Amino acid sequence: MAKIRAHVFVSGRVQGVFFRQATKRQAQNHGVTGWVRNLPDWRVEAVFEGEETAVRALVDFCHHGPSSARVDNIEVNYEPYKGEFAGFFTR
Questions:
Q1: Does the annotation mark 20 as catalytic?
Q2: What CATH number has the domain spanning 3-90?
Q3: Which of 20, 29, 43, 73 is an active site residue?
Q4: Of 30, 48, 73, 85, which is least surrounded by CB within 10 A?
């Protein structure tokens, strides 16, 4: 199976609603590496790396997030796999 990388920006009510923690949990459950962080403009940014089906599952999760979130928009850029992460981190 091919490995891919996705760089994601999520906007809406996505800070203060456990979006980062839920994303980290989902990434760990799917064996995806990378990171997630809050941005000063109230968006959440994440980078996911791993098997294509697992990364796409994380991107799908970001379309709705945890139950307390409201996702208004998601921007996804697929990039070449780099294999630079040893795990999944919250920044």
A1: yes
A2: 3.30.70.100
A3: 20
A4: 73
Could you tell me the sign of the dihedral formed by the alpha carbons of 12, 27, 37, 66, in that order? Answer: positive
| CB atoms closer than 10 angstroms to residue 30 | 18
Alpha helices (H) in the chain, listed in sequence order: 19-30, 52-62
Mean pLDDT per block of 10 residues along the chain (91 residues) reads 95 93 96 97 97 97 94 96 95 91
In the set 5, 13, 29, 38, the catalytic residue is: 38
User: Domain extents for the chain?
Assistant: 3-90
How many Cβ atoms from other residues are within 10 Å of residue 31's Cβ?
11
Taking the CA atoms of residue 78, residue 66, residue 26 and residue 10 in that order, the dihedral angle to the nearest 10 degrees is 20
**d(Cα 91, Cα 88) in Å, to the nearest integer?**
10
